[in-house]
Amino acid sequence: MGVSVMKVPASIRRAASAALMSLALLTGPASADEFSAVYVMSDNLGDMGFNDNAATGFARAEKEGVRVRLLQASPTDPQLWRQNLEAVSNSGKWSVVFTGPNMHDNLAAVAPQHPEQKYVFFDDELKEPNVLSVKYAQNEGSYLAGVLAAAAATDAKTFPLSSGEPKIAVIAGMDLPVIQDFIVGFKQGAATVSPDIDVQVIFIGNFNDAQKAYDLTRTAIANGANVVYNVAGPAGLGILKGAADSKKYAIGVDSDQNGLHPDNVLASMLKQIGNSIHDSIQQIQAGKAEFGTLKVYGLANEGVGLVYNDALVPAEVKALVDAAKAKVVSGELKVETAFK
User: Can you give the residue ranges of the ABC transporter substrate-binding protein PnrA-like domain (predicted)?
Assistant: First the structure.
């Protein structure tokens, strides 16, 4: 069975469409007193996840008077990523240049050549005096996802699509440090509910092959997984559909994906990328951004979080997860990380 047909709720389609339309119109030269921000992408919008979450931050800034442009690019054309970054840097027309995943080597080569240009590098880190790096404590958000996954897998009465066996899975894009950070936190959270829980970890090999993600999800479920955690970017749409077609549960990622398969997606682990982008723009405008440093957004400053599907997750299970969150925020519990 294929994954070509993805039913996206009309409200999400309208919001994404409106954001894209407004951002597409924001072109042209910058005036001397106009604050401007450009995002050089290594992928496209429309993933209903990471990239679309980022777009919300730029859309908010645009409503506040910031001139914004998003430069999309094919995920299979790294030469264009570099060309776009060089073009905006050479133009001298942007107050700040944003870039993110897959752009480390490109930014490391370009930023030192333009010491007067300000850059924000999110979901990664580059130590340069004109670069503000932004990371997210995805291990903390994934810890909560693991608590929920284990609770749902082992409670067939409350979650009737589960067998009750302590078996869950992570379907991930690639074996990268940031992805391992998701996995480490997820496993730790799950183990607090069921110490001997079986956590399958399966890598797709990329972040764009939704069909392969779908097939691997079906395999994980055939091997007993009651809940699958999507950590695969655009390919994750195949994971969610694979869980739905298998009549099992899934947990979404980056954006609120609960509405994509409302009978099966228990919750989504949000990386509040849009919030961090909007916050960074405000800090730069106010002259308070600390370039050359790293800022981390976690549970304590609402950089990550879990949004529930209220129709599937009852109050007592939410209370279990929220109690785990409180321990992390207070410092009582330290979530393990893949970054040492």
Answer: 38-328
Q: How many CB atoms lie within 10 A of CB 289?
A: 19
The answer to whether residue 254 is domain-embedded is yes
**Per-residue model confidence as pLDDT tens digits over 88-140:** 999 999 999 999 989 999 999 999 999 999 999 999 999 999 999 999 999 99
Residue whose C-alpha is closest to residue 178's, from 100, 105, 107: 100
Residue 96 shares a structural domain with residue 174: no
Residue pair 217/175 in contact (Cβ under 8 Å)? The answer is no
Q: Check whether residue 251 and residue 147 sit in a common domain.
A: yes
Distance CA 172, CA 97 (A): 29
DSSP letters spanning 265-282: EEEEEEE-HHHHHHHHHH
On whether both 185 and 314 belong to a single domain, the answer is yes
Amino acid (1-letter code) at residue 68:
V
Domain that holds residue 63: 10-136+273-297
pLDDT of residue 27: 38
What distance separates the 2 farthest-apart alpha carbons in the chain?
63
Tokens for 280, please give them.
């960074």
